[in-house]
Amino acid sequence: MSSGGVAAAGSTGAVSAAPYGSASILPISWMYVTMMGGEGLRAATEGAILAANYIARRLAPHYPILFTGPRGLVAHECILDLRPLKATSAVEAEDVAKRLIDYGFHAPTMSFPVAGTLMVEPTESESKAELDRFIDAMIAIRDEIRAIEEGRMDRADNPLKRAPHTAATVSADEWPHRYSRLTAAWPSVAQKSAKYWPPVARVDNVYGDRHLFCSCIPIAELEPSA
Known about the structure:
Blueprint: H1 5-8, H2 12-17, H3 25-59, E1 65-66, E2 78-81, H4 84-89, H5 93-102, E3 109-110, E4 117-120, H6 128-149, H7 159-162, H8 167-170, H9 181-185, H10 189-193, H11 205-210, H12 219-222
Antiparallel strand pairs: 1-2, 2-4, 3-4
Helix pairs in contact: 3-6
């Protein structure tokens, strides 16, 4: 679930105008609009809005939905409010985002435009089967959170706080956690037939943001020798 043509078009100016932005994003957006045409853009917009509202309606019983209209509808994105979960289970938006990797999903936009939320933007190209797979994963994750709330899972050592789980971790001789390897790596039937293994486990995002380093070749080595 990520931004597609309809959702991303509005941000092209800001990206291309940034000091280190990419000017190529402008012709890409122009080609998208040109090739789609008026009817195509309308159909894509309707599809994206319909998909977002489908997700919002199905997940509303499990997560509060922010910024709905008078009839409870959203636009091309729906914002899932995870903030109340911190008090009841110590689970935060980052934990849900990391856990989604175990379910085979790259997490949606996190903590924007509201801190502690997930902004889901299903594009016009997402099939209903894929939407349902994402919805099922989010409902399953809510069940895991409920297990923490009810004391059936530990508040500190649980699949959300330890996610994502790599193949090396799950296949190691020792398993120090208070939940099973099956719960960690194969939380649903879908993972048993098509499993994505994340290359790295949980990292300290704040530390990484404050201690940036480049693993690429130094600029000096790219310069031609005299």
